[in-house]
Design brief:
By secondary structure, this protein is of the alpha/beta class. The protein is globular.
């Protein structure tokens, strides 16, 4: 069966599709990094050697294979070779503590873990039963099955695990989000109109992030080329995009901010771009407008979650008047808003986002109660996933996000949304970046506190900026304190780590 036939079937696996690409377009570049380029034929052969080696070592179908590494061609091949063996890829964030990484390896039950040189000490000193293989050394090549080796065929059901993505929780062991082959098949299929067959996609976020995988996997599924960046740098991104004549990119908002902020951005030739996408964090309307004005190609913002649920898409190019929204639910996605009692709210009212679609997690690995807590069922018994966000639909059905439910500030009995305060604070000329959190208050229960990164070209004191901001806010929204900070703490995919800021205040840092 050809790759085209597989891609138009009811279900196919990514390893099978890549095998057909290896036969049909074997010489085309599949993945590239700063040091290595793999064609589809070479990728297919390396996946076989990895899968055969896993099977040789007794790693059984359905078991997890852990990876702790920076993005590279070898990383991509191990991830995909794991799938060919019928195993479940468990890419872990190297930035996690050694104790947390050890706990995640134990949680997913991986009998083998791949670690690269940059992260060789990530699990140092931990008592880990899993076999460790250094990914970027001769030891990895020695571990591989011989050239020409073929893995034993496995039968993969749509419900079988594809990968486990661990949540970025800052306390306790992160929850393992199990995503099935059916879910990933839905991600590949929904990009049928995205032009990924001839794409050169810039992947500049980590491969352990779902943000990366939702563009990396469709690129390979449709036969395009993925250019992997080990570490994001705005100028290097533009240099690589120009060199490879990139057509697609998935970037998080803070990356767009850094790229667009380069003084010589307009000197780079980006005329090859056809599609740019964004997800994972709030995308300021002014920044979207700047991208639309100066960067060729369509801009689409996606809103969704790693657990699945429903997703929205905003084609900013077609709807420049809706830049304050995250768009409308995608085709086949059912998104609703509910109140604290679990009842659906009327059109135009604020509620918690819940969603249902073909792309939904199986559940949290080994955590039935956590899985149940994340679910909501409608009156007909249909299963939805709670997104944890608060929003409302406008009159045209575009979703306006207000904030994370856990970040909602209740001050004096009133709901205060940090995003509303941030929108005002960001417009002060002395503010380069900012965020707002809620902290305990004896008088009000909670009160808003702001953090900002100063703009080096404008001088203004914290008191002056706070007074200017509060003058434009409602009484219950006003900041009780404002702190200058060199840089906002962010995750690898650009989300502000508000818990770190709360801890900093608690600990007096």
């Amino acid at each position: 069966m050809s790759a085209a036939d597989l891609l138009t079937s009811d279900f196919a696996t990514l390893p099978d599709i890549i095998r057909e690409h290896g036969k049909e377009r074997g010489g085309k570049t599949a993945v590239a990094d700063d040091n290595t380029i793999l064609s589809y034929a070479e990728l297919d052969a390396l996946m076989d050697r990895i899968a055969a080696a896993l099977q040789r070592d007794g790693v059984e179908q359905g078991q997890s294979v852990a990876i702790i590494a920076s993005a590279s061609v070898e990383y991509a091949a191990v991830f995909l070779g794991t799938l060919r063996a019928g195993c479940v890829a468990a890419p872990l964030a190297p930035s996690s503590t050694p104790e947390s990484l050890a706990a995640m390896i134990e949680d997913c039950g991986a009998p083998i873990v791949f670690v690269d040189g940059d992260n060789a000490t990530a699990i140092a000193g931990q008592d880990i039963a899993a076999k460790q293989v250094r990914l970027d050394t001769q030891a990895f090549h020695d571990w591989l099955a011989p050239e020409g080796a073929k893995s034993a065929p496995v039968t993969i059901d749509p419900s079988h695990g594809f990968n486990i993505i661990y949540s970025s929780g800052t306390t306790g062991t992160p929850k393992g989000i199990v995503q099935s082959h059916a879910m990933r098949w839905a991600h590949i299929g929904r990009n049928s109109a995205g032009g990924y067959g001839e794409a050169v996609t810039m992947n500049s976020t980590p491969l352990y992030s779902n943000t990366t995988l939702v563009s990396f996997l469709p690129t390979l599924g449709w036969g395009g080329t993925s250019v992997l960046m080990k570490k994001f740098d705005a100028r290097r991104f533009l240099e690589l995009a120009e060199k490879h004549r990139a057509t697609h990119a998935m970037l998080v908002p803070v990356q767009y901010q850094r790229i667009m902020g380069l003084p010589d951005f307009d000197s780079f030739d980006l005329s090859s771009f056809r599609l740019k996408t964004s997800t994972s964090a709030p995308f300021a309307p002014a920044l979207k407008a700047d991208v639309l004005a100066r960067w060729p190609g369509v801009l689409i913002e996606f809103y969704g979650m790693t657990e699945g649920g429903a997703s929205t898409g905003l084609n900013a190019t077609e709807h420049p008047d809706k830049l304050h929204t995250v768009g409308q639910p995608l085709a086949g996605h059912d998104m609703r808003l509910i109140d604290d009692e679990g009842n659906e709210v009327p059109q135009g009212e604020v509620g918690e986002v819940v969603g249902r679609s073909p792309a939904m997690m199986t559940g949290y690995h080994g955590r039935r109660q956590a899985t149940a807590d994340a679910e909501w069922y409608d009156s007909e018994g249909n299963r939805f996933i709670r997104h944890g966000d608060i929003g409302r639909f406008d009159e045209d059905g575009f979703l306006i996000l207000l904030d994370r439910k856990k970040d909602l500030i209740i001050s004096g009995g009133f709901n205060v949304y940090p995003v509303d305060i941030e929108a005002v604070l960001k417009t002060h000329p002395a503010v380069h970046d900012c965020t707002v959190i809620g902290v305990p208050s004896e008088a009000w229960g909670e009160t808003p506190v702001g953090f900002y990164v100063p703009d080096t070209g404008v001088n203004a004191s914290e008191a002056e900026i706070m007074a200017w901001t509060n003058a434009q806010l409602g009484k219950t929204q006003r900041l009780s304190a404002l702190h200058a900070i060199n840089e906002l703490p962010r995750s690898a995919i650009g989300k502000v780590l508000k818990r770190e800021l709360r801890d900093r205040l608690t600990q007096g840092g």
